[in-house]
Design a protein that fits this description.
With 320 residues, this protein is α/β, with parallel strands linked by helices. It has one domain: Arginase, Chain A. Helices cover 38% and strands 14% of the residues. It is built from 11 helices and 8 strands. The model has no long low-confidence stretch (mean pLDDT 97).
């Protein structure tokens, strides 16, 4: 089995609420409180961030801090690519969800000929574009970056000039063109959607597993269903946003949403997914301890991360 390498991405320029950059440290503190040795077992490397841009104010109304987001996508892409090249399993702890596109681009750069599936466990679809975003926050756009989508059919904004130049550059990070196909995407627990996102999910027939299905059939069964949906893919990346958890248990995240997963369901779901040999990278995002009391969300997030890491390390050794 490949050794895990933890990649820390303390970036939050894609978020609307400040504080997600502190999520990595909050999870480390949680590991101490829970007396875990996870951070002794695995080496970690930190990707340099550009959070200082936050002090300058956002210039691009429909893609806030897109210049900085582009830098972060390139840096994360390169780090993920290098760790895979060195034969590590990248386990990414990130701030806001925008940099997950960098992870996808890095996997694709490492395996340009392989078909990559993505399992996106999140309250939100994160498939807005500068043309459709209601907020301008780029943590709502990583999957449109990955699929190379503009969604001009649902255009409500008119981004121009530099914003568009940066947007075109972002879509080509790592390599030219789309990194994944919409049919190679599975949403789990997504429940807070805007019209442009609904339009794309229906138009592109994106795979969807609802919270109700997890509750009815169990998290393990739904993990296997998600893997089955991506049976045709060579590799799978799992991206876990803590706001997929019900807002009663995830106060420490920027955009909590009710009617989500329990912590236990999220733990089983992620661990079951990580047992699959096709899963080549796992990521956890959007822990924001500034919104929390007693670091509860970070503790839950860390427990889920540790269960996932154990599942990865418990996989049988396979010939590459």
């Amino acid at each position: 089995m490949k050794e895990i390498k933890i990649i820390e991405v303390k970036s939050e320029i894609g978020a609307g609420t400040r504080g997600a950059s502190l999520g990595v440290e909050a999870m480390k503190i949680a590991s101490l409180d829970l007396k875990s040795d996870l951070f002794r077992k695995f080496d970690s490397i930190e990707v340099e961030n550009v959070n200082e841009l936050l002090f300058d104010g956002a210039e691009h109304a429909y893609a806030k801090f897109i210049d900085g987001v582009l830098i972060m996508e390139e840096r994360v892409c390169l780090e993920v690519y290098e760790q895979i090249f060195d034969d590590y399993f990248p386990l990414i702890m990130a701030g806001d969800h925008s940099t997950a596109y960098g992870t996808i681009a890095g996997i694709k750069k490492a395996y340009p000929k392989k078909r990559l599936g993505v399992i996106w466990i999140d309250a939100h679809a994160d498939i807005h574009t500068p043309f459709t975003t209601p907020s301008g926050n780029m943590h709502g756009m990583p999957l449109s970056m990955a699929c190379g989508i503009d969604n001009l059919e649902c255009k409500v904004n008119d981004p121009r000039g530099e914003t568009l130049d940066y947007w075109e550059q972002i879509k080509n990070v790592g390599m030219q063109g789309p990194k994944i196909l919409p049919e190679d995407l599975v949403y789990i627990a997504v429940r807070d959607l805007e019209k442009p996102e609904n339009y794309l999910i229906n138009k592109l027939n994106i795979n969807f597993i609802e919270v109700e299905e997890v509750k009815k059939f169990g998290a393990a069964a739904m993990a296997h269903k998600a893997l089955q949906m991506l049976d045709h893919c060579d590799l799978i990346y799992v991206s876990f946003d803590v706001d997929s958890i019900d807002s009663r248990f995830s106060t420490g995240t920027g955009t909590p949403v009710p009617n989500g997963l329990t912590v236990e369901e999220a733990k089983i779901l992620n661990a079951e997914l990580c047992k699959d040999a096709k899963v080549c990278a796992w990521e956890i995002v959007e822990v924001n301890p500034t919104l929390d009391t007693e670091n509860r969300t970070a503790e839950s997030a860390f427990e889920i991360m540790e269960a996932s890491a154990k599942a990865i390390m418990g996989r049988p050794v396979m010939a590459e």
